[in-house]
Design goal:
- By secondary structure, the protein is of the alpha/beta class.
- The protein has nine helices and nine strands.
- Strands 1-9-8-2-7-3 form a six-stranded parallel beta sheet, with helices on both faces.
- Strand 5 and strand 6 form a beta hairpin.
- Helix 3 packs parallel to helix 5.
- The chain binds cytidine-5'-diphosphate (CDP).
């Protein structure tokens, strides 16, 4: 299937123009709602926010796979393991029990992350995890273990799963694949504001450099690099607010968004 890029607000390609011709809907046959939805993209492209909101709307399970890689990284740092020691980190990933559950505490969290029964929801967002998570995620042994766990969850269906390799590796047969993107500068600004909102100190330049470094490691690694699946719909979120991105994504789910036939919109 050819890659599709959509621009929701492009007047020439707006709602109605090709409605009924696009994915999921035809004049006589209404295809059921996608049950497995993969959302990939680089850091701060909006995956987690959109994934969470979409799963709430649909009543689907929401799995942020980044949280799993972060949990392995946090526990490795806590145990004083050398993050360059691939064998030790892979062994840790095999032994560690990670659970993502509905929010157990009302403190602004999207979900609760348990590592061997300990609540690590906020610890996995710390800067030292940001710095070390990409090298840890590049290890084949770590990816193998987490990918298997993610596939088991996805098999149950009615799931929105977000990450870097969901549409390409974890569930290549997902019913709907979306790739959210934006420039590094836009994404760094979002992350900067997020950190400030949590009441922590933030330095925009530092965040931007860290994000570019992480993008590079994630997209150049040997195993499951960050990239859009051939059949993913790419949504540039650079000029869109969260409600606007959610609207685009919901229309993709309902199959009522116009297909731009591979064009992008300025
Ligand atoms: O929230 P943010 O976009 O900054 O990152 P995340 O989604 O929490 O993911 C953190 C890191 O985990 C990424 O930079 C990747 O290195 C790794 N990751 C991955 O390799 N594969 C995934 N499916 C999800 C995350």
């Amino acid at each position: 299937m050819p890659r599709r890029m959509i621009c929701f607000f492009c007047p020439a390609r707006g709602k109605g123009r090709t409605e009924g011709r696009s994915w999921g809907v035809s004049e006589e046959v209404v295809v059921p709602r996608p049950s497995t939805i993969a959302i990939d993209g680089p850091a701060a492209s909006g995956k987690s926010t959109i994934g969470g909101l979409l799963s709430d709307r649909l009543g689907y399970l929401y799995i942020d796979t980044g949280a799993m890689y972060r949990a392995v990284t946090w526990v490795a740092l806590q145990k004083g393991l050398d993050v360059d020691d691939e064998d030790a980190i892979s062994e840790l990933a095999r032994a560690l029990e990670i659970e993502i559950t509905r929010p157990a505490v009302d403190d602004g969290r999207q979900y609760t992350v348990l590592a061997d029964g300990h609540d690590v929801t906020w610890q996995i967002r710390r800067p030292e995890v940001d710095r070390n998570v990409s090298p840890v995620s590049a290890y084949a042994g770590v990816r193998k273990v987490l990918t298997e766990q993610q596939r088991r969850i996805a098999r149950r269906g009615r799931v929105v799963m977000v990450g870097r390799d969901i549409g390409t590796v974890v569930i290549p047969d997902a019913d709907l694949k979306i790739y959210l993107d934006a420039s590094a500068e836009v994404r760094a600004r979002r992350r900067y504001l997020e950190v400030l909102e949590r009441g922590e100190e933030a330095d925009y330049e530092h965040i931007l450099q860290d994000m570019k470094r992480r993008d590079m490691i994630d997209s150049q690694r040997q195993v499951a690099p960050l990239k859009a699946a051939e059949d993913a719909v790419i949504v540039d979120t650079g000029n869109l607010s969260i409600p606007e991105v959610l609207e685009v994504v919901e229309r993709l789910v309902e199959g009522t968004v116009a297909d731009s036939g591979g064009d992008t919109c300025a």
